[in-house]
Amino acid sequence: MYQHIVVLTGAGISAESGLRTFRDQDGLWEEHHIEDVATPEGYERDVDLVERFYNSRWEQLHCGNVMPNAAHLALARLEAEFPGQLLIVTQNIDNLHERAGSRRLLHMHGELSKGRCPRSRQTFILREPFGPNNCCTCCIPAQRLRPHVVWFGEMPLGMDRIHEALDHCDLFIAIGTSGTVYPAAGFVDSVNHHGAQTVEVNLLVPDRHSQFQYHLTGRAGEVVPKLVDAILAGHVIGSDLAAL
Ligand code: BJW
Q1: What is the pLDDT of residue 184?
Q2: Which of 89, 101, 138, 201 could form a disulfide with 175 if both were Cys (CB 3.0 to 4.6 A apart)?
Q3: 109, 163, 209, 235: which is the annotated catalytic residue?
Q4: Strand order in the sheet with 110-116
Q5: Model pLDDT, residue 244
Q6: Running along the chain, 244 residues long, what does each successive block of 10 average in pLDDT?
């Protein structure tokens, strides 16, 4: 039985809930230039454009049709029933893990449902879309809230807690991430160094450079519930994996 599990999730886990990934066909980066909407320089250049990008995603998340899927629910069940330590580190800014019931959760790239004061860094739950009148209540004059997200060149959140968990884990699972964005892409390397098991769940067959020891190819919504069942039944990931 494992004692410390870290799960890293990416956009692929929310794809079956109807949220677009970034780099797949029809992904968000097909319609938007990264440097325009996902850098502090892009925000400085054109605040309105960046706000439209996040407002449309915020509206989609709050319109009522987007629900946690079987993979989110399975991870919440793992947290509820696993007797050891579990931390979910998500690169996603949606709130589907918490809506599924996960509590031991860290949003390393921020949260779509929050805005942040650019001066004090205080965060505020977003009750209306971003715009010139959506301002902080901590400063005089009030500051226009910026998205509480981590753009390229900015420091991801919670890195001390993440490294602490990675250093102690005996199982690391990455679900629905392309492994192209650092520092998250480097987690598998650091975990491999201290001998933990590493498992990747992805729709695509891994390439030969993959650093994961085990691969489960398929939709997260189908694969993750089976993986969770196996962990809770006390199986050690290995040759049994093919039977999932
Ligand atoms: C399914 C599925 C299904 C589909 N079931 N699977 C050169 C070398 C190394 C590093 C760097 C470098 N130059 C710059 C850097 C650092 C840079 C970086 O990594 N750049 C790379 C492009 C090379 N990183 C940073 O800047 C980070 N900060 C940092 O490093 O700080 C330290 C520092 C600070 C200051 C100075 C110097 C150093 C910050 C990165 C911030 C990333 N932000 C974004 C936007 C967040 C807000 C938002 O959502 O809009 O985060 S970019 C975007 O990519 C988003 C995601 O979280 C992130 C990762 O994407 P993800 O989740 O992997 O999605 P996809 O679409 O790529 O993949 C989806 C996968 O799912 C695919 O594999 C599918 O097959 C799969 N899938 N459906 C299972 N149903």
Answers
A1: 98
A2: 201
A3: 109
A4: 123-125, 110-116, 146-149
A5: 67
A6: 96 97 94 96 98 96 90 98 98 98 98 98 96 97 98 98 98 97 97 95 93 96 97 81 61
**Ligand 1 pocket, residue 40 CB under 6 Å:** no
Give the residue, out of 182, 205, 216, 224, with the most ligand 1 atoms within 8 A of its beta carbon, to mutate for a pocket test. Answer: 182
pLDDT at 240: 58
Q: Whose CA is nearest to atom 63 of ligand 1?
A: 177
Angstrom distance (rounded) from CA 180 to CA 48: 28
109 is catalytic: yes
CB of 89 closer than 6 A to ligand 1? no
* 242 ligand 1 Cβ < 6 A: no
pLDDT recorded at residue 217: 96
Model pLDDT, residue 157 = 98
- Which token pair is 176? 């629905």
| Residue that the structure tokens 């962990």 belong to | 231
How far apart CA 130 and CA 132 sit, in angstroms, is 7
Beta-bridge partner residues of 8: 89, 174
